[in-house]
Amino acid sequence: MTQEELMREAVRLAVANVQAGRGGPFASLIVRNGAIIASGTNLVTSANDPTAHAEVVAIREACRMLGDFRLSGCELYTTCEPCPMCLGAIYWARLDRVVYAATRDDAARAGFDDGFIYRELCVPASERALLMKQIEREAAQEPFRVWEMQEGRVRY
Amino acid sequence: MTQEELMREAVRLAVANVQAGRGGPFASLIVRNGAIIASGTNLVTSANDPTAHAEVVAIREACRMLGDFRLSGCELYTTCEPCPMCLGAIYWARLDRVVYAATRDDAARAGFDDGFIYRELCVPASERALLMKQIEREAAQEPFRVWEMQEGRVRY
């Protein structure tokens, strides 16, 4: 399948997702060597899971299938520019490339304001609308110390 | 429980998570009216899920318990400053507040470099290390059009 055919398949999944009442108008594919190995659609409202964006659902499904927490060698096709949560997930999954179609401005016009979250993430915590408070920093070093000493720890 | 007691409970969960070999040195609690309603630890390597950070696991568990995709009225306690993926999830979950202990610099010293992802998210796509390509923008407007016309759609 060409890149355009892959993206049009993702668009079809996104339309079907809305029509079935499963969630928002978004779908993603995980592609390896030109073949689709997993897909995901937005399931936030039907699964009661605010993290069930199409990209996250597709990444989780591909990892489950491959039995690996890394997707090196794979690409993500997604109908819309990823939100910060999904972009973070893309980095942690070590995907090689992202191909997207609609932009964050298109999403904002449809009522999905990722732009707000992008702005919040890129300012210091003290300037965010979200209240953040730090306590007990010293006590929280203990998990790191135990981690460093743990034999057989699996880095990710 | 006081804020400090809640955080020390999260630290205990993070230490136990490492000792059990379930994943990285992180744990989170979802707290409502001063009581813990859900918890989560990092399960990335044991669940083969790169999105299974403590915050995401705790948010998903709390939503499952409450049968809601929003956690308004709840607070997140987490042993370390959230990475961009988790901070995005916190916004989407509509949590009231985040209380954290260790900083992203502490995490980086232990080998968890969220700072890299924060830098990547805050620059234009063309300046990122991650390859991103846009195609088929017009075709990808169709899911939004279907969404706007869909009766009974559930916004999130």
Oligomer: homodimer
The N- and C-terminal alpha carbons of chain A lie at a distance of 32 Å
Net shape of chain A: globular
Can you tell me the residue ranges of chain A where pLDDT is under 50 for at least 5 consecutive residues? none
Please summarize the sheet with the most strands of chain A: 4 strands, mixed
Proportion of helical residues of chain A: 40-55%
SS content category of chain A: alpha+beta
Largest beta sheet of chain A: what is the strand line-up? 2-1-3-4
Number of helices of chain A: 7
Characterization of this structure:
- Two copies of one chain form a homodimer.
- A four-stranded mixed β-sheet of chain A has the order 2-1-3-4, sandwiched between helices.
- The first copy, chain A, contains seven helices and five strands, in the order αββααβαβααβα.
- Chain A has 156 residues and is of the alpha+beta class.
- Chain A has helices spanning 3-19, 44-47, 54-66, 84-92, 104-109, 114-121, 142-149; strands spanning 27-32, 35-41, 75-80, 97-102, 131-134.
- The first copy, chain A, starts with a helix and ends in a 7-residue tail after the last helix.
- In chain A, a hairpin with a 2-residue loop joins β1 (27-32) and β2.
- Chain A is globular, with a radius of gyration of 18 Å.
- The mean pLDDT of chain A is 97.
- Chains A and B meet through α1, α2, α3, α4 and β4 of A and α1, α2, α3, α4 and β4 of B.
